[in-house]
């Protein structure tokens, strides 16, 4: 759905090109120096983040059911170590911020899947996923203290020559930073043919990736993708 004309006028970007953007849920549009999405804006807590070693897509408010963030130059990267390092810089910058009370009320499938991965909600695995989930669960260990983390970094770190990496589309959770890093490795192993050596290269533990794979599996509704998670398990030697 294209941003309607009243929304474009409200944001001051009417009259110019409006271009659909790839990635995410396929609902983002670029208009001028803004990215528009038909969803609520990020929380006010992002205003308190002081970037150090990264750029951050800042909120520009909301109008008519659409929110806007500032457009940042850059492109996705398959350098997953660089993605994880950018995430670490972001997590250092938000480590002092408190948990947001509204997050506990989330009922979207990603929030539900996160609770399943952390044993806070009973799982209902697809039949092909159940034996994989059992192996992953056996590998779980504590991952440290929780804080605000971005749990969808894989395709939401942009790189550009001469600029720090850009963090976009923050998906906030209250979990250990190593879990967010595990999500990047899990995505890389299951969907991007990354080698098992990525764990060593990025300094991410097997338990962190195992927890992240449970998270991704709990969001999935396609039995046919079981081979991807099986492949990731083998890369972890599970």
Describe this structure in words.
There is one protein chain. This protein is 35% helix and 16% strand. The chain is of the alpha+beta class and 238 residues long. The protein has two domains: 66 residues; 161 residues, Alpha-Beta Complex (Aminoglycoside 3'-phosphotransferase, Chain: A, domain 2). Strands 1-2-3-6-5 form a five-stranded antiparallel sheet, with helices on one face. Strands 4-10-9-7 form a four-stranded mixed sheet, covered by helices on one side. β1 and β2 form a beta hairpin. The longest helix has 15 residues. The termini are far apart.
Characteristics of this structure?
single chain; 238 residues; alpha+beta; Aminoglycoside 3'-phosphotransferase, Chain: A, domain 2; 2 domains; five-stranded antiparallel β-sheet; four-stranded mixed β-sheet; 8 helices; 11 strands
List the helices and strands and how they pair.
Elements: H1 5-11, E1 18-20, E2 29-31, E3 34-37, E4 55-56, E5 59-63, E6 66-70, E7 75-76, H2 80-94, H3 109-117, H4 130-138, E8 147-150, E9 157-159, E10 166-167, E11 172-175, H5 177-191, H6 198-202, H7 206-219, H8 226-235
Parallel strand pairs: 4-10
Antiparallel strand pairs: 1-2, 2-3, 3-6, 5-6, 7-9, 8-11, 9-10
Helix pairs in contact: 2-5, 3-7, 5-7, 5-8
Give a brief rundown of this model:
This protein is of the alpha+beta class and 238 residues long.
């Amino acid at each position: 759905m294209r941003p309607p004309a009243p929304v474009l006028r409200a944001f001051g970007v009417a009259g110019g090109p409006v271009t659909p953007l790839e990635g995410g849920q396929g609902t983002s549009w670029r208009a001028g120096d803004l990215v528009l999405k038909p969803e609520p804006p990020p929380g006010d807590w992002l205003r308190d983040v002081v970037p150090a070693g990264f750029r951050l897509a800042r909120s520009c408010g909301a109008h008519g059911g659409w929110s806007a963030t500032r457009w940042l130059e850059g492109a996705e990267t398959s350098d997953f170590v660089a993605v994880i390092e950018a995430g670490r810089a972001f997590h250092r910058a938000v480590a002092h911020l408190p948990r947001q009370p509204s997050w506990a009320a989330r009922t979207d499938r990603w929030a539900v899947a996160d609770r399943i991965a952390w044993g806070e909600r009973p799982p209902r695995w697809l039949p092909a996923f159940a034996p994989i989930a059992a192996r992953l669960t056996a590998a779980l260990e504590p991952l440290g203290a929780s804080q605000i983390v971005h749990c969808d970094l894989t395709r939401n770190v942009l790189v550009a020559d001469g600029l720090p990496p850009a963090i976009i589309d923050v998906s906030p959770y209250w979990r250990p930073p190593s879990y967010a890093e595990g999500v990047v490795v899990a995505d890389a192993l299951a969907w991007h043919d990354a080698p098992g050596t990525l764990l060593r290269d990025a300094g991410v533990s097997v338990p962190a990736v195992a927890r992240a794979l449970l998270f991704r599996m709990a969001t999935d509704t396609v039995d046919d993708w079981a081979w991807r998670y099986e492949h990731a398990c083998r890369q972890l030697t599970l």
